[in-house]
Amino acid sequence: MDMQVAFELPPLDEEGYLIEPRDWNEAVAEELARQENITLNEDHWDAIRFMREFYEEHQVAADARFVIKHLTERLGPGSRNKLFELFPYGYVKQACKIAGMKRPRAWSTG
């Protein structure tokens, strides 16, 4: 039987978000996505990488509007809801968590 080696995540807060966004890497994203029952595809990675680049530049998580705009520019105007198809339980609850952001305290979890 093929036993998968347990992946040890960096420290998380009580809600499962990284305490330190610098601890993020793609293996962390894969594990956090697995815990959310999401299999990451090219579009997920595009959104996540955009979010990481925004964070690196601004030291704050991108507002969902910026990610929606990015995806719409790449995928076309029919993709306005793509972010919510990729992360059905919400931008903060899933996208921010998987992208290694701290939980944005001022935002709802929706």
Automatic annotation (TrEMBL):
Record Pfam families: DsrC (PF04358)
Main location: cytoplasm
Name this polypeptide is given: tRNA 2-thiouridine synthesizing protein E
Alphabetical UniProt keywords: Cytoplasm
Localisation: Cytoplasm
GO biological process: tRNA wobble position uridine thiolation
NCBIfam families: dsrC_tusE_dsvC
InterPro entries: DsrC-like_C (IPR042072), DsrC-like_dom_sf (IPR025526), DsrC-like_N (IPR043163), DsrC/TusE (IPR007453)
Similarity remark: Belongs to the DsrC/TusE family.
GO molecular function: sulfur carrier activity
GO-annotated cellular components: cytoplasm
